[in-house]
Design a protein that fits this description.
The structure holds 2 protein chains of 2 kinds. Chain A is an all-alpha fold. Chain A starts with a helix and ends with a helix. Chain B is mainly α. Chain B has one domain: Helix Hairpins. Helices cover 71% and strands 0% of the residues of chain B. The longest helix of chain B has 32 residues. Classes of the chains: A mainly alpha, B mainly alpha. Chains A and B meet through α1, α2, α3, α4 and α5 of A and α1, α2 and α3 of B.
């Protein structure tokens, strides 16, 4: 069975799972459905001959699931019934997105068929990567040698995002601080 | 071509979630779906028929390999996605502590 049929099957499962994740009421079910989508992405990376990416995607999925479940489970939030204007807006959005899809079909026809790479710049890396860098894995030779400055910048972005998350979590909310001051004063 | 179109449908599903959902958790999940779809589309563009992963090994004859450049870019992009997801979750948790709701229309109403 060629790779393309496997990919079509996995993608259809992923689309169904993502729609289910968006439409389900229970938070835990929708987080698990997102997990299905991410593991589907990991599997399709394996079919597309990208083993490094499959491993990283798998780890990402598990970490993301842990973060989401830890943060959102047990928060009781009350779901309100969508009002009429919300339903009208959702319908309008679906119509617009369908129109975008129909118009985009002709754009995708301009691309080369599946199985022929779009970019041809990487042929240099394939031919000379081992000679220039001495790395057996050409992906890591690109990350750490040819495009090392790119990686440095991306690591800066990652560091800033993590720093931002920790800073946000450390800020005490105003009402809480006042409450603690009041309780200290009464003591 | 049908693979590209299905991947584009996945991206549109994520866009639909971002545009119409009022629940902050659902919005974060749809941003995740958008990221998956974009990463997968890049790797789909890189695939070459009847070729192997771009790792050299001894005793293996030279055969055509898939494009390694998009793989290198997507590898870092996945890791950054984890960082941004963590930051979004932290913001949502803080908003829940302050307003006691995840509904963005309610949060807009309760100013200050």
């Amino acid at each position: 069975m060629p790779v393309e049929y496997w990919l079509i099957f996995i993608l259809i499962v992923m689309i169904i799972a993502s729609i289910a994740a968006l439409e389900m009421d229970d938070i835990l079910s929708s987080i698990v459905a997102i997990g299905i989508v991410g593991l589907g992405v990991s599997l399709s990376f394996l079919f597309l001959q990208a083993p490094d990416l499959a491993i990283v995607q798998f780890l990402f999925e598990i970490f993301a699931l842990i973060i989401l479940v830890k943060a959102f489970l047990g928060k009781d939030y009350h779901k309100q019934a969508p009002s009429r204007i919300n339903k009208i807006l959702a319908g309008l959005t679906i119509i617009t997105l369908t129109a975008i899809f129909i118009f985009s079909v002709s754009v995708f026809e301009l691309l080369p068929p599946f199985g022929e790479p779009l970019m041809t710049t990487a042929q240099y890396y394939l031919d000379n990567g081992a000679k220039d860098t001495g790395a057996a894995n050409l992906v890591s030779s690109i990350i750490l040698d040819y495009r090392a400055y790119d990686t440095l910048g991306e690591i800066t972005v990652l560091f800033t995002a993590i720093l931002g998350a920790f800073t946000i979590l450390r800020i005490k909310s105003k009402s809480k601080k006042e409450n603690s001051e009041l309780s200290n004063a009464t003591k | 071509m049908i693979v590209y179109l299905l991947c584009f449908i996945l991206l549109l599903v994520g866009l639909y979630g971002v545009l119409t959902k009022r629940d902050l958790i659902k919005i974060i999940l749809s941003i995740g779906i958008l990221g998956y779809a974009v990463n997968l589309l890049l790797i789909l563009f890189a695939y070459r028929n009847n070729s192997i992963y771009p790792i050299l090994s001894k005793g293996k004859e030279i055969s055509p390999m898939v494009d390694p450049l998009p793989q290198a870019l997507v590898l870092t992009s996945i890791v950054i996605e984890l960082g941004t997801t963590a930051m979004l979750v932290a913001l949502a948790v803080k908003l829940f502590e302050k307003y006691n709701t995840f509904d963005i229309t309610e949060i807009r109403r309760l100013k200050g």
